[in-house]
Design brief:
Elements: H1 16-21, H2 29-44, H3 80-90, E1 97-101, H4 105-112, H5 116-137, E2 141-148, H6 156-175, H7 177-183, E3 185-190, H8 198-211, E4 217-225, H9 227-243, H10 254-258, E5 271-274, E6 293-296, H11 306-332, H12 345-374
Parallel strand pairs: 1-2, 1-5, 2-4, 3-4, 5-6
Keywords: Endoplasmic reticulum, Magnesium, Membrane, Transferase
Subunit structure: Forms an active dehydrodolichyl diphosphate synthase complex with NUS1.
Subcellular location: Endoplasmic reticulum membrane
Length: about 375
Amino acid sequence: TKTSSAQAPRIRIPSSAQWDKIVIPATNRWSWLKRALRVCDSILGPPTAMAPNGTVAATTTSAPSSPSPTTWVRESNLLWYHRWVIRVLRAGPIPAHVAFIMDGNRRYAKKANIAKAEGHSAGFEKLSETLQWCLEVGISEVTVYAFSIENFKRTQDEVDGLMDLAREKFQRLLAERDKLHERGICIRIIGNWDLLADDIQRSIAEAVLLTKHNRKATLNVAFAYTSRDEMTHSIRTVAQGISDGRLEPGDVNEELLTRCLYTKYSAEPDLLVRTSGEVRLSDFLLWQSTSTVMYFTETLWPEFTIWHLFGAVFYYQRYRWRMQDIRRSLDSFTIDAACSDDATEGACVERKERIGRFLEHIEQEEEKQLRRLVRGMTIK
């Protein structure tokens, strides 16, 4: 344990019993957060610096490493001062859904003088660690940008390495099914599965089916994904519904297209975090992010720590009200998919029932495709 009396006064550390009795006030949480960081500073040195604009500087104190580096589902390894900061943050609103653009694996590999494949492996280890932090903070849904369709344009060696890594990690996911059920974690893989090898399709289909009824937390993995492809998929689905006579042209509006996206089972992300210093979305969740708080940090993804997550959540708490105003404004202009420009109540009810049957049909077809994949049949 390291102390730094020159940087911070000595602070008495509460016992475990006293810690559980601490009540964090809903007001003046910033003072409480600064106090928590002062305690960490007195023990370990300054863990991080949070600038007024919400960015997080490089940290001198990384989060504790996990004893099980190949698992998707980690055990809690937070220390008391991490939990203190979490209690401070929980005095305010916690984002229910956080999306991550996990950027910087290749730059990390170059910086660490290791192979690109090792950089991507380090990125996965950071993902599994971050998922556990999110559960600790109280974030119930996470969406990660694991592999863009644009990544297929990289060198064949790198693409093959990424696909091999995906095979290994999805097989590991299946091996941890008991842990997933125990924690109630639902896995969804969003993207264009047609672009993936048959064995990868089979693994992810099995993972989706095995966890579809879990409700405590959700992990959405965007794999072979871009927003442009997702929107194209939604439009084609609706067009096929019209062609089959299940929909009428007048049924089509924004809400119906939203309910045909890959992400149709998820709410819009409250917070989007991108690492590596890039300030763009790279064709990720463009349709869903109109009222999302965006947080950008220069930290490379494998170097992301729990302190960066704390900074992102606090940034969300400071600026969420702006996005809420935008969301309320958009909601006020949303046209009911069942009743827009209908002349009679009967026509309104008929349209609503027709759309409901169509959405139920595509959900049933998707489940049939998943079961065919598990039996070894492709969807191509």
